[in-house]
Design brief:
Its EC number is 3.1.3.48. This protein has about 150 residues and is an alpha/beta fold. Helix content is about 40%, strand content about 15%. Strand 1, helix 1 and strand 2 form a beta-alpha-beta unit.
Length: about 150
């Protein structure tokens, strides 16, 4: 089993979308996908209703997901840890115990060399359009990630 963790700040907007999108592109008998937030604000919460709606419009159900906080043992559980922005990156890297841990952490948009700004914008204070933009950025990166994982 190859395991992949998606990480944002609250684990209610961006990482639940990344989690649902990547899961939809990988066979579940070989890959395990999960998500977490660096903060504890939304532990136990459902994803934001706008993330649920944008996923649903694209045929993906994320409504059963529940927020949880990133923990140091996630470095042991997961092979790949994709973070949404530089702030998430710094917060996760601070918890790394060694270079083996830190080598697992990447900005999710780094998988596409054509994208200049490597931060997935936080849509929490935005509109549904911002969530649609986040969805398209994540769908593009998850296409590349799933191809790389399946071919490796
Ligand atoms: P996320 O968005 O990190 O994409 O889940 C946020 C959700 C909640 C908050 C911030 C960002 N918050 O401050 O509660």
């Amino acid at each position: 089993m190859v395991s992949i963790l998606m990480v944002c700040l609250g684990n209610i907007c961006r990482s639940p979308l990344a989690h649902g999108i990547l899961e939809s592109k990988l066979p579940s008998d070989k890959f395990y996908v999960d998500s977490a937030g660096t903060a504890n604000y939304h532990v136990g919460d459902s994803p934001d209703h706008r993330s649920i709606a944008v996923a649903k419009a694209n045929g993906i159900n994320i409504s059963h997901q529940r927020g949880r906080q990133f923990k140091v043992s996630d470095f042991d559980t997961f092979d790949h840890i994709f973070v949404m922005d530089q702030s998430n990156f710094e917060n996760v890297i601070k918890l790394a115990r060694n270079t083996h841990d830190s080598s697992k952490v990447k900005l999710i948009l780094e998988v596409d060399p054509h994208i200049k700004d490597k931060n997935v914008p936080d849509p929490y204070y935005g509109t549904i359009k911002d969530f649609e933009h986040v969805y398209s950025l994540l769908d593009n990166s998850c296409n590349i990630i799933s191809k790389n994982l399946i071919n490796n």
